[in-house]
Amino acid sequence: MLVTLCDRTTGQVLGQISKADLTVIQEILEEESESDVDYYIQDSALELLSQAGLSPDGHLLLTKALGDHADLEFGWEIPQETDTGLKGSISTEGGDRPAPGLAVEARFGKERYWTFTRDDGGFDLRLPHESRSYQVSVAIVGGKVVWSEALDAEAGEVTRLGDLPLDIELVANN
Are strands 103-108 and 85-90 parallel, antiparallel or unpaired? Predict the structure, then answer.
């Protein structure tokens, strides 16, 4: 199983790492909470990760992502193999610019699924359940929830929810 990494500032997909590399990252880097899905690194953290067992491929991916920057905030997600889910876009207040790097989360009972908005503000969150009802939330870097609402929509319906410039479509298996 591969894990996708995403830059929380730009929304750019950084690449994919193995589940084993994610485990190393989770063991070494600080988590703000039990449900944390993003991390902050600097050059010094890369060496610690390598010493702890991060693969050469994982190290190379994070080194390239860090580039000439002093630090990097990245999120991780596990792609779901399904035809159902939520997709949409988020823009800044006023709707004039895309909002990349936001965490979009859906809960179905106690199960939790998430993705991040990409550089164009779009997201595509695949969900293993064909349900109409999810608790959906959007969080900025650092995990601060800026919007949360129950979504109850028909497949193919585009819903504008709350005050956030957010359009969500429930995608159903055809």
Answer: unpaired
Q: At what angle do helices 43-51 and 56-66 cross, to 10 degrees?
A: 180
Which among 67, 71, 84, 94 has a CA at the least distance from the CA of 131?
84
Residue 50 has a pLDDT of 94
- Asked whether residue 48 falls in the same domain as residue 69, the answer is yes
Secondary structure of residue 70 in the 3-state scheme = coil
As a whole number of angstroms, the distance between CA 23 and CA 43 comes to 19
Assess whether 42 and 96 both reside in one domain: no
Asked which of 54, 77, 100 is the last residue of a domain, the reply is 77
Using one digit for the tens of pLDDT, what is the confidence trace for 148-174? Answer: 777 776 666 666 555 555 656 556 543
Q: Which residue, of 30, 57, 77, is where some domain finishes? A: 77
Cβ–Cβ < 8 Å for 86, 52: no
What is the per-residue pLDDT for 169? 56
Range of the domain at 156: 85-171
